[in-house]
Amino acid sequence: MLIYAGMLVISVCFALLAVSSPPVRRVVFQKSGRELVFYQQNLLWFCTFLPLFLVSGLRYKIGVDYNSYAWIFKSITQLGQKTHVEIGYEWLNRLVGFFTEDYQFLFLLTTGIFLFFMAKGIRQQSANIPLSVFLFITLGYFFYSMNSIRHFIALSIYFFAIKYMKRQEFWKFLACILIAATFHKIALIAIPLYFVLTRKFKFSYYAIIALLLVVCAVFNRQIMNLVFSFVYQSYKGSVYNVYSFSVFNVLLSGLCTLLCIGYYEPLLKRNPSNIIYINAAFLMLLFYLFCGWIPTPTRIGHYGTILFILLIPEVIACEKNPRIRRFYTVAIIAFGLAFLTVMLIQAQNPSIGLAPYQSVFTRTSL
Fold this sequence. Notes:
This protein is mainly alpha-helical. The chain contains 18 helices and 2 strands.
């Protein structure tokens, strides 16, 4: 897909320009006697995410949930029907519906919210901003957001809030997660994650966790029947209640785990809060190996794997040998491009629904 490929190239190039631009350099626009002043770096950073905003925000019937979200918008704003969505997303629909009956503006707004928090998170926390932007796109998070709007708004707020987890500022982190949960309640899983990811475990503890997960996998039917007795009754017997095994997520988590083993001490020496990334890598590997029986495991796993777009640049920054750093960078770029290529080849599959790309300018009516 030329549109997606061009979007990737343009965004990464602007990210490279942004980090190389002096922070104090200003750009002045003059019109009708008025003067507007912007910092060049901020403008370039805005341009980094502009192609992503346009591609996602102006999409038309792209993504498997597109029609579902259009129906939800009409149900809330025009028909007055009850829907299954959380209160935050419902009021977002009401806000758009107050101004227009065109649901396309909802996609523009939700895309803007998602990208805003991802952009803030990457800029504030990444050791290599262009590489994190590259991984954000090529590892699929940007593309998945076009299939699951509510989930990725919540995920982006969590990603932004990782800085509070690093600083051990629990109440600020909790506030962000509660806001995220108003868009998708699965964000509440981040609350126990706060206490797990910030702890430094002995390696033997990971073995104990792995053993417990194996036991849970053996008795998965009994466990899920118990769960369905109290929550998620609608998942019982549905397409979500099936065993799934994600080869890509196992490979990605395995790669990050190997990097964490090899650079365990350098990572902690560089910043003790990097234990969050280390735990995320180990636990996500175990999760994807043994927890495929949990409904929608990938959606849950995103709360660990989203940290990899920060972990990988952090590991590379720990390597003192410039040749090895270049090797790692080239290898990661090749890995990301390979996955993106495979994903885009399969993009016409109805279960992905990302190709052929159509924009809102191709539609004939609402």
